[in-house]
Amino acid sequence: MNQPPPHGWYQQPPPPPGWPQPPKKNRAPLVVGIIAGVLVLGAAATFGFLYLGANADGGSPKRGGTMPGVCADVPEAALAKARTTNGNPAMSRVRKLADHTQTSCAWDQTKGEDGSGLRNTDAYVVVGDAAAEYERRVSQSKQNNQGTISNRPLEGLGDEATAVLVDGKSAFLQIDVIVRKGDTVVEVEHTGWDAGLFGNKRPDITEFEAAARGVAEALLAQS
């Protein structure tokens, strides 16, 4: 025997035979929206990863210690222009040989101060046998096998000066500025690349040369 439904309970009578059924909900737009959202988030994450990686600060914490010889007297302004204000005393030294004295100086980027990308500056100051030393260093620079070599004389710098550019197939760029003044030879080797939107890019050659020349002029002034 059928029992009546509880008081207040309402039962929807079934539709009569042949009555049209309500349409089922189409979930395709929801699925498409979810997929689109995932793709957008993935693209944004990839963009952020590539951008942050390319523009990361590659500098080192500021080092202590004193740079040797003429290295210590290079003005901060010249090093800032080269974006290598972080002196490296451990890689800098003065060597006295039989017929000449050579001072080696090394600088790189200071973290938080010299920007992204990469910059390194290495310099050599040789006193004695300058004519032979100048020719030797120019010839040695031209033998670099890391890229396309070009060189040209520099006016208004010492008694004679040459810039040797090494233009790599990648973003890497190197310039050697070699100067002879009296009995002193100065060579500044400036290397690096700039940060692009998603990767490294080649620096501006004019700015690169000006930075290396500025360090060379500062070293000549101390010699």
Q: Your description of this structure?
A:
The protein is of the alpha+beta class. It has a domain at 69-222: Sandwich (Jelly Rolls), CATH 2.60.120. 29% of the residues lie in helices and 27% in strands. The protein contains four helices and nine strands. Strands 1, 2, 3, 4, 5, 6, 7, 8 and 9 form a nine-stranded antiparallel β-sheet that branches. Mean pLDDT is 84; it is low at 43-54.
Element layout with pairings:
Elements: H1 28-54, H2 76-81, E1 86-87, E2 93-96, E3 101-108, E4 118-127, H3 130-142, E5 148-153, E6 160-167, E7 173-181, E8 184-195, E9 200-201, H4 205-222
Antiparallel strand pairs: 1-3, 2-3, 3-4, 4-8, 5-6, 6-7, 7-8, 8-9
Protein name: DUF3558 domain-containing protein
Biased composition (Pro residues): 1-23
Keywords: Membrane, Transmembrane, Transmembrane helix
- Rg calc: 34 Å
Backbone shape: elongated
Work out the oligomeric state of the chains in this entry: single chain
Q: Mean pLDDT score, rounded?
A: 84
Instruction: State the order of secondary-structure elements, H for helix, E for strand.
Output: HHEEEEHEEEEEH
Number of strands: 9
The CATH architecture designation of the domain at 69-222 is Sandwich
The CATH top-level class label of the domain at 69-222: Mainly Beta
Percentage of residues in strands: 25-35%
At the third CATH level, what is the topology name of the domain at 69-222? Jelly Rolls
Poorly predicted sequence stretches spanning 5 or more consecutive residues: 43-54
From the N-terminal CA to the C-terminal CA, the straight-line distance is: 117 Å
Backbone structural class: alpha+beta
Overall helicity = 25-40%
Largest sheet: 9 strands, antiparallel
User: Counting H and I runs of at least 4 residues, what is the number of helices?
Assistant: 4
